[in-house]
Batch of 3 targets.
Target 1
Amino acid sequence: MCSSDIFLGIIAILFPPIAVWVKRGLCSADSLINIGLCCLGFLPGLLHAWYIISTYPETDYDSLPQDGGERGTATYYYVDQRPSEDRARQNRGYGTNERMQAPPQQSGVVKGQQSAPREHEGESSAGGVPPSYDQAVKGDHKVQT
């Protein structure tokens, strides 16, 4: 028995199903049996919890074989840093053989059209004073409550 099993034995004195839940899981048959025994009385539930703790001990990591599974081998991977043809293809569009071009810079004015002058141009961007409440709701005839 390791120290965690001793601690679970002490926890089982306070509430036996907790120790069973830690050992066997929340929705296991042992958990349902322990809850049923606790309904019959504290002592049957406690004895069952101690039985579960002693039957399913914690894995002792010192007893595991030290050479289990790995056999002391290492795997090396070589990563190629040279540019390849696959990386050159990544800059191409879907289903095309041509390289993708950067989109042209867009401006707010379409060629051949004049931009309409704004009514309050420069007020908000120039740091002007914002309109007062009366100016903002001018023409708004809703009932304000």
Note: Helices lie at 3-14, 16-24, 29-40, 42-55, 85-89, 133-136.
Target 2
Amino acid sequence: MTEETFKSKFQREAKKPSLKAFRAFGGGTTLCPGRQFATTEILATVVTMIMRYDFIPAEGRWVAPETEKTNIAAGCWR
């Protein structure tokens, strides 16, 4: 089988992925029924790490991240 025949038979052209291709917990009719459980487990794991270990900044002081060129949600925590 020649390379051209192989390409035409087995390889499709790459499609550009949809902007909605990745949704962590789905949405609409594909909404994940365990999304609250997963979110709670992640939160519990982070809280356990924070309570169990002493976190020290690498440069000697905590530095807040820049929020000038980001969405509004990131700027609300200040």
Note: The chain has three helices and no strands.
Target 3
Amino acid sequence: MKSTFFSVAAFAAVAAAAPAKNSLLAIRQAAPAITDADILNYALTLEHLENRFYLQVLDKFSEGDFESAGFEAPFYANLQTVSKDEGAHVSFLTAGLKAAGAIPVEECTYDFGLTDVKMAIATASILEGVGVSAYLGAAADIMSKNYLTAAGSILTVESRHSAYIRNALDVSPFPSPFDVPLSYNEVYTLAAPFIKSCPSTNPPLPVKAFPTLAASPENPMTITAGTTITLLTPDYTVKAADGQSPIYAAFITVTGPVFADATPVDGGFSVTVPTAPEGGAPVAGQSYVVLTGCNTTVTDETVAAGPAIIEVSPQES
């Protein structure tokens, strides 16, 4: 089993000094300045993935398969519309990049592990939620107002896809008044397991995947603030360089991360889902949690693993 060590002191001082070198940070250097072309190709990479996912789902499963799984009409027809939307996003971003004189990335090869309809729609819900968070997280970096408007027009559609599919899965279609922005590397970490290979001619993107963090399948079916869950670190461990400093779980929200103590257990960490501070965005809906040695901020330099995706039921008022 591999071990991941990091310096908590270096993480706390990341804004003031370069972090100490270690095995974790060596694979995750600060990203260079990102351009609008990079951002559009980053978006196109995700749209290719979503587009191919829906095409494979609709090719593998018939309308009858969906009805047998409990997704009655007009769900299948609406899923075909969602698929067409993703194809339109691919065409739109590809044309925009070409018009700007940039080389658009081409489709990769993927493995979605499609075994049954319910699993496929659960995956669709996750992908749509990640798509919303990806566009939201990238918005602040887009320099061109035209590109920003175009990205915003895709984001709102992805959000409607997410709400519709969540509702079909009998979970709240709008569990929080705020969506969650994710960084490029956080999004790529979630997308990377589906990507098996990409054309060598694709322009490189300034993104890298963090070590995988996963929610334990033994976690309670219903998770709310105050629920204790287990986060798994497959094939590696996370601990401070001094072996004593604490590890934290940071739940990402638009108003800032909400931290909780992470207690080492066999295969990962035990964490109690925190309640957001008054005035902050709640930890609710499709939520994202990373492991870190810093309990004041979350950056690409302080993330040790993750994100893991946790579905957190909104608290009743």
Note: The first helix runs from residue 8 to 12.
